[in-house]
Specification:
The chain folds into 2 domains: about 60 residues, Phospho-2-dehydro-3-deoxyheptonate aldolase, domain 1 (Alpha-Beta Plaits); about 260 residues, Aldolase class I (TIM Barrel), CATH 3.20.20. About 35% of the residues lie in helices and about 20% in strands. The chain has 10 helices and 15 strands. α2 packs parallel to α3 and α5 packs across α6.
Length: about 350
């Protein structure tokens, strides 16, 4: 349920409703929009009988939420959420942000080289895996804390905020020490213990869609994070598993406008994992922008043939720069702009 307050409701009226609900054992979540405040009610709705909330001063109406997700839904917050990664990088709104970098941090030289290149081309965030979940236990698993230190050093030099994956509950404090955005990989989308713990930190979380997850399941995973108090969630479409074998996954771009209709959270697209082929990345990045994506995540490597992981889907700096030029033209048509970098 949600309580919709009058547009002119005063703070003391809002506080009175919140206090009454909490006294009755409900959890409350406030969404303060441009024109009015909405109070989300979490708990057994049968206990609302007899409270007569609509009789309280400042209350316009009490509305049931029909979707299974409450906090992530448009009913709770009609306006788009803009996630503030840094004072200068806001995910959502008119700026489209591009997260770029290697699949895995391999060495200081490798990371610094690609960080400088993507920064010069217009990327506004740096990605790189320090902990690498791989299908085979014998594949390169990442440099772990040493990789995190290298990412922090690259941020220091380039000014690019860092996005990197957190694998489990135990590693949250370590990753949060170095990263600006903590990524939940597709394999962990329904690791509910991890999601709940990430809901208790004060940093944005980038939540990738699982390879077989429905849109509802994906948004409900975000709900787990938000239910613990962290509303700074960015959703990432990265392809789903279908019968098609030519591409690594099937990139579901229809999910972008679908999710944006259902949820107020920003949505970005990862065409690198979505296709698994470097020559498909730029076309699908442009299509994602046209579909309404708030950002992109692009794997980039200075020497893809020598990459320790995912070289086949990584753009060279030259290809990345060419794609960024094309994206700027599409953004103009859409009334948006690519944030950062050369113009």
């Amino acid at each position: 349920m949600i309580v919709v307050m009058d547009p002119g409701a005063r703070k003391e009226q809002i506080d009175a409703v919140v206090n009454r609900l909490q006294k009755e054992g409900f959890d409350t979540h406030l969404s303060t929009g441009v024109s009015r405040t909405i109070i989300g009610i979490i708990g057994d709705k049968t206990r609302l009988t007899g409270l007569a909330l609509e009789a309280m001063p400042g209350v316009e109406k009490v509305v049931p939420i029909l979707q299974p997700f409450k906090l992530a839904g448009r009913e709770f917050k009609p306006e788009d959420t803009v996630v503030k990664v840094t004072p200068d990088v806001h995910m959502g709104g008119k700026q489209v942000h591009v997260i770029a970098g290697p699949c895995a941090v391999e060495s200081e030289q490798q990371l610094m080289e690609v960080a400088r290149e993507v920064k010069a081309a217009g990327a506004t965030l740096l990605r790189g895996g320090a902990f690498k979940p791989r299908t085979s236990p014998y594949s390169f698993q990442g440099l772990e804390e040493e990789g995190l230190k290298l990412l922090a050093a690259a941020r220091e030099e380039t000014g690019l905020p860092v996005v990197t994956e957190v694998m489990d509950v135990r590693s949250i404090p370590l990753v949060a020490k170095y990263a600006d955005v903590l990524q939940v990989g597709a394999r962990n989308m329904q690791n509910f213990f991890l999601l709940k713990e990430l809901g208790r930190i004060d940093k944005p979380v980038l939540l990738k869609r699982g390879p077989a997850a429905t849109i509802e399941e994906w948004i409900l995973a975000a709900e787990y994070i938000m239910s613990e108090g962290n509303y700074n969630v960015i959703l990432c479409e990265r392809g789903i598993r279908t019968f098609e074998t030519y591409t690594r996954n099937t990139l579901d771009l229809s999910a972008v406008p679908a999710v944006k209709r259902l949820s107020h959270l920003p949505v970005i697209v990862d065409p690198s994992h979505g296709t698994g082929k470097w020559h498909l990345v730029a076309p699908m990045a442009k299509a994602a922008l046209a579909a309404g994506a708030d950002g992109l995540m692009i794997e980039t490597h200075c020497r893809p043939a020598e990459a320790l992981s995912d070289g086949q889907q990584s753009l060279t700096p030259e290809n990345f720069a060419e794609m960024m030029t094309e994206l700027r033209e599409i953004a103009k048509v859409l009334g948006k702009e690519i944030g950062g970098g050369k113009q």
